[in-house]
Each structure stands twice: as C-alpha cells, then as structure tokens.
Specification:
Number of helices: 3
Shape: globular
Largest sheet: none
Distance between the termini: 27 Å
Strand content: under 5%
Number of strands: 0
Oligomer: single chain
Order of helices and strands: HHH
Number of domains: 1
Radius of gyration: 11 Å
Low-confidence stretches: none
Helix content: 40-55%
Structural class: mainly alpha
Mean pLDDT: 85
C-alpha cells in the first residue's frame, strides 16, 4: 500500500514516479523531500533541487 502512495528511492526512481502521475493526466504534483538519514526530519535540499521543475 505504501509503495502505491509514496515515491521513494534515488532521484531517478522518484522522477519516474512523478512522470507516471503527469503521464496519467496530473497537472500538478506535490512533493515533500525528506533527508535519507533515519530519524531526520530535515529536508534533502539537493534532491529537492534535482526534482524541482
């Protein structure tokens, strides 16, 4: 269930999932990028920059 709702993995994997939404007709896709360190709520700004339009 979680895999159907959450795009996770490296930037390339997440880009593929975002593209699936756009290809299915989404005109807007909201992302929240979390830092990969366990227990950290910090934003992963490098990943966010890579995924931003």
């Amino acid at each position: 269930f979680v895999d159907a709702m959450v795009a996770w993995g490296d930037v390339d994997a997440i880009e593929r999932r975002l593209s699936e939404h756009v290809d299915a007709g989404a005109t807007q896709v909201c992302i929240q990028v979390l830092h990969p360190s366990a227990g950290s709520a910090a934003v992963d700004y490098d990943a966010l920059a890579a995924l931003a339009p």
